[in-house]
């Protein structure tokens, strides 16, 4: 009995258990990506036009991104309490929307519907914040893979919920809203006491590398399986039993990673002393900071390197460059000790140290990340929010197929973005934001496919936009924690997420909806003139053909090119920082 109790204690405090459970919580944090399937239901039920639907989409994006309260509560309350708040908000917001869409309660004005959508979707920010804060602290030296996998499962949530919806014989399409209200809340409440920091930086094991490889394999199999199931269900008329079998296999794949913490607990694999010595215990909010009167000279030496380093050093091979930088740092330290040079003591932290939000807001690097993210992810979110209308305008009868597809590509983009950006920083000590620039270039091409409306463009465009958009959310949180520290990561991350609703407000809420309604009005007037009928003003406007979104996505493509330029400026500015952070661990 004592051994069983000891096993349960070790299992419950295993950082891999926290990570796996956080993956499940994150799969409930992707309900915003279902808006492309929810919006046609709301539009037809409440007789909205596209501009009104776009306003609901902006409210959804605001709810999904305004996480200041979630970040603040995660520092004040226990993390389980923050998850509980998020679950309650999700249930109340989408539950009331379902009651209105099914006419069980009186219809409310559009602005009230926006508030309900905002409240329901805002629950995601609590799931996101708690999962990321807990796991980044538990895996301080594996931020790229951890963030990529967690954000990937958030992106995959839409496809998982869609498959669950397909396996249940619901009475009407509005039942999808009911499932969104009830399902995630139940899952999060049942798991909320597990997701927390458990001193993971002290749990380094030799099996960690193979464990990450196993999770990556599960991710790839899961994405391929969902894609195959989706295509089969789209092409064939399957009976409900087969669909339920598909869903059961999906559940088995999702829970498969639980084998990792079980194996870790049973094996009790010893620490690797060499690698343990490389780990610095992340400072918690309760640990006192160094007094300002006793600064660490190395902090100032690193700042001096940026000023004293000859320009030709950056052109040297990596090994020689690191050697020259180490020599320069030693000379500066010796000179400072003799008083031969006055090392400048800049006010506030330097890049790579712990920043507060107010300190980060005055840094150019912080705003370069923000504006690049706004242009890149904002244009991607415009596609996600309008995917249902886009597919209908091009004659596709099942828009939920593309919603599920972009969810899967989004998932692979996040997982792949975390994996490849980690290779960039670990193997080459090169700035992580270069991965964001590549993702934005891919998105620029994807927007052009949507604009042209070529045969098969919906499939190719969905692939490129999904992968590119997803990669942003693996790269940005990891880069933010590297450049501005972990201490206030919740607040920093949630400020960055404001780029999403800001981009959506302009690109989708104003630009895309206005162009769509203008083209729909032109087509309606043409039809009325052709059939000698009067235009009925209260009928929902409907646009057909690639012209509905052509202008919008040409503009989106140009904005992604601008985002690439901003990301490359950030790469150039942070080369020295990443050499300092990762150059010593190479080789």
UniProtKB/TrEMBL annotation:
<dbReference type="InterPro" id="IPR010658">
    <property type="entry name" value="Nodulin-like"/>
</dbReference>
<feature type="transmembrane region" description="Helical">
    <location>
        <begin position="207"/>
        <end position="230"/>
    </location>
</feature>
<feature type="transmembrane region" description="Helical">
    <location>
        <begin position="77"/>
        <end position="98"/>
    </location>
</feature>
<keyword id="KW-0472">Membrane</keyword>
<protein>
    <recommendedName>
        <fullName>Nodulin-like domain-containing protein</fullName>
    </recommendedName>
</protein>
<feature type="transmembrane region" description="Helical">
    <location>
        <begin position="16"/>
        <end position="36"/>
    </location>
</feature>
<feature type="transmembrane region" description="Helical">
    <location>
        <begin position="458"/>
        <end position="479"/>
    </location>
</feature>
<feature type="domain" description="Nodulin-like">
    <location>
        <begin position="15"/>
        <end position="262"/>
    </location>
</feature>
<feature type="transmembrane region" description="Helical">
    <location>
        <begin position="400"/>
        <end position="421"/>
    </location>
</feature>
<feature type="domain" description="NFD4 C-terminal">
    <location>
        <begin position="360"/>
        <end position="578"/>
    </location>
</feature>
<feature type="region of interest" description="Disordered">
    <location>
        <begin position="273"/>
        <end position="301"/>
    </location>
</feature>
<feature type="transmembrane region" description="Helical">
    <location>
        <begin position="491"/>
        <end position="516"/>
    </location>
</feature>
<feature type="transmembrane region" description="Helical">
    <location>
        <begin position="551"/>
        <end position="571"/>
    </location>
</feature>
<feature type="transmembrane region" description="Helical">
    <location>
        <begin position="110"/>
        <end position="136"/>
    </location>
</feature>
<feature type="transmembrane region" description="Helical">
    <location>
        <begin position="148"/>
        <end position="168"/>
    </location>
</feature>
<dbReference type="InterPro" id="IPR056555">
    <property type="entry name" value="NFD4_C"/>
</dbReference>
<dbReference type="InterPro" id="IPR036259">
    <property type="entry name" value="MFS_trans_sf"/>
</dbReference>
<comment type="similarity">
    <text>Belongs to the major facilitator superfamily. Phosphate:H(+) symporter (TC 2.A.1.9) family.</text>
</comment>
<feature type="transmembrane region" description="Helical">
    <location>
        <begin position="242"/>
        <end position="262"/>
    </location>
</feature>
<dbReference type="GO" id="GO:0016020">
    <property type="term" value="C:membrane"/>
</dbReference>
<feature type="transmembrane region" description="Helical">
    <location>
        <begin position="366"/>
        <end position="388"/>
    </location>
</feature>
<feature type="transmembrane region" description="Helical">
    <location>
        <begin position="433"/>
        <end position="452"/>
    </location>
</feature>
<dbReference type="Pfam" id="PF06813">
    <property type="entry name" value="Nodulin-like"/>
</dbReference>
<keyword id="KW-0812">Transmembrane</keyword>
<keyword id="KW-1133">Transmembrane helix</keyword>
<dbReference type="Pfam" id="PF23262">
    <property type="entry name" value="NFD4_C"/>
</dbReference>
<feature type="transmembrane region" description="Helical">
    <location>
        <begin position="174"/>
        <end position="195"/>
    </location>
</feature>
